[in-house]
C-alpha cells in the first residue's frame, strides 16, 4: 500500500511537462522584454536622435554672453574723467547649484559679510536676465576674499570668480553731479532692458551723462561658444563673436575749471555753472558738497548710504540742476529788457526813489534795500546800484502776464539743457499757475515781489547761467550741453530743439543794459565794485540776495542774529568780455549773505581762470579776501 501511494504522488512526466511550460513562458517573457528594449533603443537612437543629440551637446557646449567694454569719458582737453579698471566679480549660475540657500550661507561665511548686507546679497542671487546666465553677487573682490573662495571652490558648484572691467571715477566728488555714475542693474531695469543687448552686462548708467548717453556708452554684447565638464567648468573655447565696445564720450567740461569751482565753494552748500556762450558748452557744473560716486558702482553699503541720506547738507542733491532758489536781483537786467520791449520804459526814463514804493490806495511800503533811497534813478543806475524801487515800479507797470512771457523767453521756468538728465523746470509764476495751485487770484503785491526776484519765482543755477549766456549773446539762444563728441562724431551746433532767438526793436538797448551790468563791477556805485579791482577785461555782472524767509515791514535783516541756515542766499551772474563774451557764469552760495561779496568773487575767479591763461586764481586766497570783507 505504501509503495503504491509513493507512485501516485510523484509523476515524472507531469513534472517535465510543467517545466517545459514554465521554460517556454520564461523564454517568451525574455523575448518580449528584449523586444521592448530593442524597440526603445531604436526609438531613442533613430526617432529621437536629433533631440538627444541636442541635449547632449547643450550639456557639453555652452554659449556665454560677452559684455562690451563701456566707452570712456573725457573732458574737452582729453583728460580722463571716467575709466574702466580690471576687477574681480563673484557670480552664480542657479541651475548649477543643488542647494541655493546652503551655498549662499556658505558664501556669506567665507566672505565675512556684515549682517546688514546679507539680504541684499540674497536678492542679487535672484536677479538675472535668462536661464544659465550668471547673477552678479559681489563686485570688486579683494585679494583675501579671492583667496578664501579659491580654497573652498570644491564646495561651491555654480559659483565663479570672473575678471571684468569696472567703472572708476578719478575725480569722483568733483564730477559727481555732472557725470553721474553706473550701478548694478536692478529688477525694474531688468524688466525693460533688451536682454540680448545687455546679456552678460551687470551695470547700467543711473544718473548724469552716464544715464543720458547709456545707449552710446554701453555698446553691443558678443557671444562665445565653450566646452564644459560635468561641473560646468570651461574646458576650451570653440568660437566667439566679439562684442562692440561703447563709444567714447568727450564732454565740454574743463577739468581744471571744474576743480576750481569745487575748491571755491570749499564745502559750502551751493552751485557754480559756467557756459561758453558761443556754443552752449558747459565748462563747469558743480554742486557742493559732492560725494564719492565710486561707492555706488560696486554697491554702497547700508550704513554709508544712510549717512548720505541723513546728511543735512544733502550731498546727493544736485543743486546745479534741481536746486530751487529765488533769483533775487540777478533778474533785474532781464526785467529791464522786458520793460524796453513792452514800451513801458525807455533807457533814459528816471524815477525818484525815496526808499520805498507804494501801490495806489495801499499803505504798505515796499522798501528799497537802502532805506533812505537812491534819489533819481535811470535804467543803467538801477542795475548798478540794484535799486528795488525802480523795479517795483517797472513790475507794477508791466504786470505779471507780460513779465511771465518775457522771462520765459530767457528760459526761466523751462528745462533749458539738451543732455542734462534730471533737470528741473523750477518755477516762473503766472496768474494761471496760482489759480491752479492755490485756487486764488493773483494780487498786485505779488507782482512787486516777482519784480525783485522774490515771492513765488524759483530758478535753478543752470537756468540762471543759460539766461546769462543768452543775454551775453544779445538774444541768440544756445542750449546748454555736456557732450562735445560721441566717438569721432561732433554733436551738431546749433541743436535742433534750440528756442527762438530774442530780437529787440532797438539793438542799442543791449548796450544800455550791458553798461549797467559793467558798472555793477567797475562803477563807482556798483554793488560789486570791490570785485572789479585789477580787472584786465570788461565784465558785466549782477549780484543777488535771495531771502530764505520773509521779514516784516519794519524789520531789519541782521545775519548775526539768525541761525546759519536762515540767512540769505548769495547769488551772482556774470559774463566776459562784454564785447565778445567767452564765458557766462552763475554762482549760488546758500546762506552766505550778500551776493556782491560772497558770490561775486567766485564768479570773478572763474572768469579769470578761463580768460587769463597765465593766471590761475588761488581759491584759498579768494576765500580769505571774502572773509575780510
List the helices and strands and how they pair.
Blueprint: H1 2-9, H2 12-47, H3 49-60, E1 61-66, E2 73-74, E3 80-92, H4 100-111, H5 115-124, E4 135-138, H6 143-151, E5 159-168, H7 172-179, E6 182-184, H8 187-192, E7 203-205, H9 208-212, H10 214-218, E8 222-228, E9 234-241, E10 249-251, H11 255-265, E11 270-275, E12 282-288, H12 294-298, H13 302-310, H14 319-322, H15 332-341, E13 351-353, E14 356-357, E15 366-367, E16 375-377, H16 379-384, H17 388-409, H18 431-438, H19 444-451, H20 461-472, E17 483-486, E18 489-490, H21 508-522, E19 540-546, E20 569-576, E21 583-589, H22 595-598, H23 600-611, H24 619-628
Parallel strand pairs: 2-10
Antiparallel strand pairs: 1-8, 2-3, 3-4, 3-5, 6-7, 8-9, 10-17, 11-12, 11-21, 13-16, 14-15, 17-18, 19-20, 20-21
Helix pairs in contact: 11-23, 15-17, 15-21, 17-19
Task: Characterize the structure shown.
The protein has 629 residues and is of the alpha+beta class. The protein has three domains: 2-47; 62-251, Alpha-Beta Complex (Penicillin-binding protein 2a (Domain 2)); 255-306 and 320-628, Beta-lactamase (3-Layer(aba) Sandwich). Helices cover 39% and strands 17% of the residues. Strands 2, 3, 4, 5, 10, 17 and 18 form a seven-stranded mixed beta sheet that branches. Strands 12-11-21-20-19 form a five-stranded antiparallel beta sheet. Strands 1-8-9 form a three-stranded antiparallel beta sheet. The protein is elongated.
Amino acid at each position: 500500500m505504501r509503495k503504491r501511494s509513493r507512485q501516485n504522488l510523484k509523476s515524472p512526466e507531469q513534472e517535465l511537462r510543467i517545466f517545459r511550460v514554465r521554460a517556454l513562458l520564461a523564454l517568451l517573457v525574455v523575448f518580449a522584454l528584449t523586444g521592448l528594449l530593442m524597440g526603445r533603443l531604436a526609438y531613442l537612437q533613430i526617432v529621437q536622435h536629433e533631440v538627444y543629440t541636442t541635449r547632449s551637446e547643450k550639456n557639453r557646449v555652452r554659449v556665454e554672453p560677452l559684455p562690451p567694454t563701456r566707452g570712456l569719458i573725457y573732458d574737452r582737453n582729453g583728460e580722463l574723467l571716467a575709466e574702466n579698471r580690471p576687477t574681480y566679480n563673484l557670480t552664480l549660475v542657479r541651475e548649477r547649484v543643488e542647494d541655493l540657500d546652503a551655498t549662499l550661507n556658505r558664501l556669506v561665511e567665507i566672505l565675512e559679510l556684515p549682517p546688514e548686507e546679507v539680504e541684499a546679497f540674497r536678492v542679487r542671487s535672484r536677479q538675472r536676465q535668462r536661464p544659465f546666465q550668471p547673477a552678479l553677487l559681489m563686485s570688486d573682490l579683494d585679494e583675501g576674499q579671492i583667496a578664501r573662495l579659491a580654497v573652498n571652490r570644491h564646495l561651491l558648484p555654480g559659483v565663479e570668480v570672473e575678471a571684468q572691467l569696472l567703472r572708476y571715477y578719478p575725480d569722483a566728488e568733483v564730477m559727481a553731479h555732472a557725470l553721474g555714475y553706473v550701478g548694478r542693474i536692478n529688477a525694474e531695469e531688468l524688466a525693460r532692458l533688451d536682454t540680448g543687448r545687455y546679456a552678460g552686462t551687470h551695470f547700467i548708467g543711473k544718473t548724469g551723462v552716464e544715464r543720458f548717453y547709456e545707449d552710446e556708452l554701453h555698446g553691443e554684447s558678443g557671444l562665445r561658444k565653450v566646452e564644459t565638464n560635468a561641473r560646468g567648468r570651461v574646458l576650451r573655447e570653440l568660437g566667439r563673436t566679439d562684442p562692440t565696445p561703447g563709444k567714447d564720450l568727450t564732454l565740454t567740461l574743463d577739468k581744471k575749471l571744474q576743480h576750481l569751482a569745487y575748491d571755491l565753494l570749499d564745502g559750502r552748500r551751493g552751485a557754480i555753472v559756467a557756459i561758453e556762450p558761443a556754443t552752449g558748452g558747459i565748462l563747469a557744473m558743480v554742486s557742493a558738497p559732492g560725494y564719492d560716486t565710486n561707492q555706488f558702482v560696486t554697491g554702497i553699503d547700508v550704513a554709508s548710504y544712510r549717512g548720505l541720506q541723513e546728511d543735512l547738507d544733502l550731498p546727493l542733491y544736485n543743486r546745479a540742476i534741481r536746486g530751487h532758489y529765488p533769483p533775487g536781483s540777478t533778474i533785474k537786467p532781464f526785467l529791464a529788457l522786458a520793460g524796453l520791449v513792452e514800451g513801458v520804459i525807455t533807457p533814459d526814463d528816471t524815477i525818484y526813489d525815496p526808499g520805498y514804493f507804494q501801490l495806489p490806495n495801499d499803505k504798505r511800503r515796499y522798501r528799497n534795500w537802502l532805506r533812505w533811497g537812491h534819489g533819481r534813478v535811470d535804467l543803467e543806475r538801477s542795475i548798478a546800484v540794484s535799486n528795488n524801487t525802480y523795479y517795483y515800479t517797472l513790475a507794477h507797470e508791466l504786470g505779471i502776464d507780460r513779465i511771465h512771457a518775457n522771462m520765459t523767453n530767457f528760459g526761466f521756468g523751462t528745462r533749458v539743457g539738451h543732455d542734462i538728465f534730471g533737470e528741473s523746470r523750477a518755477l516762473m509764476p503766472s496768474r494761471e499757475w496760482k489759480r491752479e495751485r492755490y485756487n486764488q487770484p493773483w494780487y498786485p503785491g505779488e507782482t512787486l515781489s516777482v519784480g525783485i526776484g522774490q515771492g513765488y519765482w524759483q530758478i535753478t543755477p543752470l537756468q540762471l547761467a543759460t539766461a546769462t549766456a543768452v543775454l551775453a549773446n544779445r538774444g541768440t539762444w544756445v542750449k546748454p550741453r555736456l557732450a562735445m563728441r560721441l566717438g569721432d562724431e561732433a554733436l551738431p551746433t546749433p541743436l535742433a530743439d534750440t528756442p527762438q532767438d530774442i530780437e529787440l526793436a532797438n539793438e542799442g538797448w543791449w548796450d544800455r543794459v550791458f553798461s549797467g551790468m559793467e558798472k555793477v563791477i567797475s562803477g563807482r556805485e556798483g554793488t560789486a565794485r570791490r570785485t572789479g579791482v585789477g580787472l584786465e577785461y570788461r565784465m558785466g555782472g549782477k549780484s543777488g540776495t535771495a531771502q530764505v524767509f520773509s521779514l516784516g515791514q519794519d524789520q531789519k535783516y541782521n545775519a548775526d542774529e539768525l541761525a546759519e541756515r536762515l540767512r540769505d542766499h548769495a547769488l551772482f551772474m556774470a559774463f566776459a568780455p562784454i564785447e565778445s563774451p567767452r564765458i557766462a557764469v552763475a554762482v549760488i552760495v546758500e546762506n552766505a549773505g550778500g551776493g556782491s561779496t560772497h558770490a561775486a568773487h567766485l564768479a570773478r575767479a572763474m572768469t579769470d581762470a578761463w580768460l587769463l591763461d597765465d593766471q590761475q586764481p588761488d581759491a584759498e586766497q579768494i576765500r580769505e579776501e571774502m572773509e575780510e570783507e
